[in-house]
Q: What sequence folds into this?
């Protein structure tokens, strides 16, 4: 009997060693909230949704040591609508919440990291580093860029109805910036400074047409030193045919965690080929600890739309409270307000578009659990 127990123990150790060598991790976020939204000339909408504080997801990632400092790595991550009768790979929605968030394979080592697949771009990473509301359903900057609604380009970035092929939003630099058919290189850290280069083939039909494929390119530089972060980014999309427009964007931002407040800010410009002038947007956000478990999050964002002759600027602010029940579970509540100039019609993601020059409001309360 004792020999059998020893044999089982040895087999268990061998199995554990094999699993540890593969180093596969399962992770995710389950986030559900109650929301209430309204906009000018629209009825109030009440709903239970997924992804108020951050998008619900499940993911698998792993690293294999190949020797001599070289490693193989992969990530497979999928959005989930926790409130709906949909599993992984369910219906594609305007928020891309039930499609692949990112899935890639690559190599990493002393040279840096190179990956290929569907990627969260440098524009996504810029947003995460410079905005305390990154990933939230009530992100003020995402709203004024026109990214909160499926048809929210009136008064927002890409007001000329440009399809950029990156995620659901009209901006190349934001929380929805993901690219298909993409490759990326991320440099090693040079004293805290990291360079990222992305290239994506947004269409792959040039062999059957007289035009070239649509493609996107993003380049960013990010410096991190303790509580400080600073980032600059350039992004462009070349359309696949002569009638579509070329889009370029610049962004600069940063933040500093003072302990009593984590302050972040960013400024972006977007140029649509043939447009009158650039579209511009800026945001400032602050995460303030108020108790051992509680934090107040405040953000303000404003757009100035130069690509049209109309008065279609938009501003938005959000006030939220986050209460940590543990390191992995957070209760949250928040209120967002959107104000439009006379020709703008943007609203929150919880309501339809506002009437021209109108306003919109949203209230959320939910729970976020990471694993």
A:
């Amino acid at each position: 009997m004792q020999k059998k127990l020893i044999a089982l123990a040895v087999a268990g150790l061998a199995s554990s060693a094999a699993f540890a060598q593969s180093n596969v991790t399962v992770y995710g976020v389950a986030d559900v909230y109650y929301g209430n939204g309204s906009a000018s000339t629209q009825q109030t909408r009440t709903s239970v949704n997924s992804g108020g504080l951050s998008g619900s997801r499940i993911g698998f990632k792993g690293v294999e040591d190949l020797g001599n400092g070289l490693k193989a790595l992969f990530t497979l991550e999928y959005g989930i609508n926790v409130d709906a009768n949909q599993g992984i790979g369910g219906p594609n929605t305007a928020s891309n919440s039930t499609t692949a968030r990112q899935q890639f394979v690559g190599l990493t080592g002393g040279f840096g990291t190179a990956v290929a697949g569907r990627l969260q771009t440098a524009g996504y990473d810029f947003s995460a580093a410079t905005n305390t509301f990154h990933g939230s359903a009530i992100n003020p900057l995402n709203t004024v860029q026109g990214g909160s609604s499926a048809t929210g380009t009136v008064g927002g970035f890409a007001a000329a109805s440009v399809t950029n092929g990156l995620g659901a939003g009209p901006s190349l630099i934001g929380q929805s910036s993901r690219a298909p058919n993409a490759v990326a290189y991320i440099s090693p850290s040079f004293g805290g400074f990291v360079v990222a280069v992305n290239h994506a083939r947004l269409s792959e039909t040039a062999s059957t047409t007289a035009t070239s494929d649509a493609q996107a390119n993003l380049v960013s530089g990010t410096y991190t030193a303790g509580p400080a972060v600073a980032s600059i980014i350039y992004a462009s999309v070349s359309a696949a045919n002569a009638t579509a427009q070329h889009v370029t964007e610049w962004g600069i931002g940063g933040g500093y965690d003072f302990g009593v407040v984590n302050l972040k800010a960013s400024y972006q410009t977007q140029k649509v080929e043939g447009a009158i002038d650039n579209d511009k947007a800026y945001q400032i956000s602050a995460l303030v600890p108020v108790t051992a478990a509680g934090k107040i999050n405040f953000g303000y964002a404003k757009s100035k739309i130069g690509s049209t002759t109309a008065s279609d600027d938009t501003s938005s602010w959000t006030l939220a409270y986050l209460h940590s029940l543990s390191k992995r579970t957070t209760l949250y509540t928040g209120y967002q307000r959107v104000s439009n100039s006379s020709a703008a019609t943007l609203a929150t993601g919880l309501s339809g578009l506002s009437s021209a020059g109108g306003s919109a409001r949203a209230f959320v309360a939910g729970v976020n659990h990471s694993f």
